Amino acid sequence: MDRSVERISRVPVEIRNAWAARHGEEAAERLAAAEDFADAIKEATIPPNTTETYAKGWKVWRRFCAEQGLPETEGSRGALVAFTAWMLDRGRTSPGPGGTLGYAPTSAHSHLTAAIVGLRERGHPVGKDIHSEARARLEAIATQLAKAKERRGRGKAPAADLDNLHRVAAACDDTLTGRRDLALILVGFHFASRASEVSALLLADITTHARGIKVAVVTGKTARSVRTVAIPYNNDEPEICAARAWERWRDAYACTEPRAAAFPRIDRWGHIGDAMSPDSVTAAVARVASRSGIPIRWTGHSLRSGLATEGRKNGKDPVNIAKQGGWAPGSKAMLGYMQLADEWDDNAAAGLRRPQKGNS
């Protein structure tokens, strides 16, 4: 048997055989091993939530292919365009909000990306033109849905704000869970956290200094979001001071193991468990916000958008806001949050008046 096809590898057989023809069978085996090693490195460095998102999206693609009788390893132009239409029309397995079986456009985008990534990983890359057309069709159908007044999905997470942080501070009691929840929300807000970043924090990642605390985010979603940020003491509004809230929680937690979770699970009897999951962080934020009487439903992402929005309102430099939240300079997401702060004060339609006529 040809040695170039004996090895179990993700590298397609035709590519390995071509390498063998050009460089010899031993070199082909080494090249294939290098490809597999590169894949292993990639998998080890992809954040778990991204891996989970891709896995969910690939399942949706497989379900579509099974329903339509299409091979799941063929990402043709027709198949991917049909996939986008199917997702927006009837892709869900159970009705969503409003009874629709179609995915929200943002979810459909995510699943399309997952399908394309999954095809590439399985040795069936999708051409750039095909990829672009599928996305363009998805955008076009989503625009038609919007024109028809059909709203899907939750929309953007409402931004946490300082007034409502005071409500949260007043609603969190002095129990172990109350101290943890307040510290989680205030610390998370002040470094513009993702739920996954809060979930992954260890005690050693949060250190106390003369002027406040520092948070080392070592599991960021991107290279830029891996960061160490300072959170100063807030002497003007100590009720929502993240550094003080962290110190009160740390003292109550009384854990001396540096690698213990910074924000662990706590059951109804006060027993401390392992680290909260990202979903648990999101649920805690929503639960505390609801209990505080906040009229809009906060999510884990409300803390992230809130720092950008409130920072802008307080005149902070966008460069410093980007550093604190791990955004790229000029990030569209960050600028979108800032626009929420500017929509009334820095508004093109605000204060319009006729020019004053000069004296002749």
From TrEMBL:
Per the UniProt entry, the signal peptide is: none
Give UniProt keywords alphabetically.
DNA recombination, DNA-binding
| This protein's record includes keyword Mitochondrion | no
Question: InterPro entries, from UniProt?
Answer: DNA_brk_join_enz (IPR011010), Integrase-like_cat_sf (IPR013762), Integrase_catalytic (IPR002104), Integrase_recombinase_N (IPR010998)
An annotated GO BP? DNA recombination
Superkingdom assignment:
Bacteria
Residues covered by the Tyr recombinase domain? 155-350
Q: What is a single molecular function from GO for this protein? A: DNA binding
Name recorded for this polypeptide: Integrase
Q: Which organism is it from?
A: Streptomyces angustmyceticus
